[in-house]
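Human:
Take a look at this sequence-structure pair and walk me through the C-alpha cells.
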Amino acid sequence: MTGSGDDRDEAPEPASEPEEPRAEQQEPREEPVEREEAEEPEEERRPSGARPGEARRVVETAREQLAALLGKEADSVSGLDRSGDGWIVTLEVVEVSRIPSSTDVLASYEVELDGDRNLVRYARRRRYYRSQADDGEVS
C-alpha cells in the first residue's frame, strides 16, 4: 500500500507539466486572430468621402451628362453615393410640365460615374407627380 501511495504522489506532477505547453500553444493562436480581426475593421473604416469640392464637381458632371442624353435639365439632386471608385448621383427631372405645376410629371434618374467622372450608366428609377408624397422610405 505504501507503493500505491507513492504512485499517487507522482501522478499529479506529470499532469502539471502539459498545462504549461498548452498555455504556450494558446498564446500564438490568439495573437493572429486578434491581428486579423484588427485588420478587417480598418479596411471597412477606410474613408470613402469626397475631397473638398469633389462632390460639387461630381454632381455638375452628372447633371451635364444626363441633360445631354435627355435634352432636359435636372430639377434637383436627391442623392449622392459612393460606388466603389465611382459615384451614383440621383437626379430629379421634370419630364412633363403641366398647369398647375403640382401635376408636373417628374422622374428620378440614377446616374453612375466612374472615378474619373465618366458616365458608366444611367437609368430612370421612378416616375411620379410633383404633388405625390414619397412612399415612406427613410434612408
Remarks:
- The beta strands are 74-83, 86-96, 105-113, 119-129.
- Residues 2-44 form one domain.
- Residues 20-43 have pLDDT under 50 and may be disordered.
